[in-house]
Amino acid sequence: MDETTKANGPWRRNLHILWFCSFIVGMAFSEIMPFLSLYVNSMGDFTKAQVTMYSGLVYAADFFVGAIAAPLWGMLADRTGRKVMLLRTSLGIAVAMGLMGLATNVWQLVALRSLQGVFAGYIPNAQALIASQAPQEHSGAALSTLMTGGTSGNLLGPVLGGVLAQIFSIRVTFFVTATLLLITFFLSLFCVREQFVPVTKSTATANDHNPLKVLTSSRLIFILLSSTMIVQFGNTSISPIISLYVKELMHNVGPITVVAGILAALPGISNIFAAPRLGRYGDRHGSGKVLIFGYIFAAIVYLPQGLVTGVWMLGILRFLVGFADGALFPEIQTLLTKNTPNDLTSTVFSWNQSFQSIGNMLGALIGGWIAGIFDYNAVFFSTAALMLLNLALIWWGAPQIRRTPAVKN
Predict the structure, then answer these.
(1) Residue 202 falls within a domain, yes or no?
(2) What is the three-class DSSP state of 292?
(3) How many independent structural domains does the chain possess?
(4) What is the domain extent for residue 88?
(5) Residue 295 lies in a domain
(6) Cβ of 107: how many Cβ atoms within 10 Å?
(7) Helix%, strand%, coil% for the chain, nearest 5
(8) Taking a C-beta distance cutoff of 8 angstroms, is the pair 116, 97 a contact?
(9) What DSSP string describes 159-196?
(10) Where in the cell is it found (predicted)?
(11) Is 47 left (phi over 0), alpha (psi -120 to 50) or beta?
């Protein structure tokens, strides 16, 4: 698809619809994610170390399966279109989420999280669809704006989930989540437009079992994919323990699920305002500059989270995390878009989803392991160190992105 066709295509309308769908998906997932460890804790008489270990396993199951399945779905999407992938993932996860509300032990929950991983990927597929349709000069702003849909949902979801869990039970949030995902399925079915025409692949691409090898910017692509994994590793290492950390800071007194939900939502507030502005700045001045800022700022705000003595201090720092996320995830994906040919858009974005799933899996497992052996604050210290290591990888491994804006192949 050439730039003229893109400019006149349905990408703006799809952006609005997929923003709303991403909002629903973000809200659906964030309703239950902060409370999974509490849900696990309710399924048995576990020690602190056992809860963190089982919580990490439950978190990781989805992402382990998703890491394997994502590239296969991505290659299929490049042949059949992205809309069908949106339908596949929203319906499949709705079923898995509904069944999780009926789970009675940890191993059933692990199995259903694995089933969820098979169908995962609504937001990455929405990003791939917009990336394939939006003109290059608008890609940074478009993808950053789309990502605010998910983060806006993440903002509301934990608060809604916390209230539902406090008034009813954590199980109720799974049924609400399944209903929201069914709404997303029908919106995607009837409102999203895609006139998909399979792009004729080059001979090299068609004959290579690993299409990423034929990319002229393959080194940069691999570094960006690795960065997705590392950033997601850092974020997810905190997810299994955040509600337990809040419980400890509150000395097990008060509306813990509500407070944990609010703290989980705070990064979304700042992200909503930061991501589109940082995306537009990156389009004009270079996405690499925004990316480097994100890593430095992330390290600065993660480190003191392990030193706080109250939920108010933790809340302020969690709010600042949204600025870092608004600089990191959208700019990584913008750089991927600008360095990926159109016929490999879904393939590369599916690999990005796979690396993200690996980061989720390792972060959940290792974060729970670190918290079990040391303490909750050690997870925040290790995340800050990881952001600095990723900055070093970008700085020396891909120096071109800090010098000039990356150009699409």
Answers:
(1) no
(2) helix
(3) 1
(4) 3-191+214-402
(5) yes
(6) 14
(7) 85, 0, 15
(8) yes
(9) HHHHHHHHHS-HHHHHHHHHHHHHHHHHHHHHH-----
(10) Cell membrane
(11) beta
For 269-280, the pLDDT digits (tens) are 887 788 888 878
Q: Which of 153, 133, 126, 143 is nearest to 330 (CA)?
A: 143
Residue 205 phi, psi dihedral angles, 5° rounding: -65, -45
pLDDT digits (tens, 9 = 90+) for 295-337: 999 999 999 998 888 889 999 999 999 899 888 888 888 888 7
Q: Please, what is the average pLDDT of the chain? A: 81
Residue pair 329/17 in contact by the 8 Å Cβ criterion: no
Q: Can you give the CATH number for the domain in which 127 is found? A: 1.20.1250.20
Contact indicator for 367, 240 with CB cutoff of 8 Å: yes
CB of 394 closer than 8 Å to CB of 224: no
**Closest residue by Cα to residue 140 from 5, 24, 353, 289:** 289
Looking at residue 100, its amino acid is M
| Residue 216 burial (CB count, 10 A) | 10
**Cβ pair 338, 408 in contact under 8 A:** yes
pTM of the model: 0.69
Q: C-alpha dihedral over 56, 226, 275, 400, to 10 degrees?
A: 160
Compute CA 74 distance to the chain's CA centroid, rounded to the nearest angstrom.
16
The amino acid present at 65, given as its one-letter code, is V
Q: Which of 90, 157, 95, 150 is nearest to 120 (CA)?
A: 90
Is the C-alpha dihedral spanning 318, 323, 328, 334 positive or negative? Answer: positive
* 204, part of any domain: no
Residues 137/283, Cβ–Cβ less than 8 Å? yes
- Minimal CA–CA distance to 39: which of 222, 260, 353, 233? 260
**201 domain-assigned:** no
How many CB atoms lie under 10 A from the CB of residue 188?
25
Query: Which three-class secondary structure state does DSSP give residue 3?
Result: helix
Tokens standing for 5? 């066709």
Q: Give the integer Cα–Cα distance in Å for 65 and 58.
A: 12
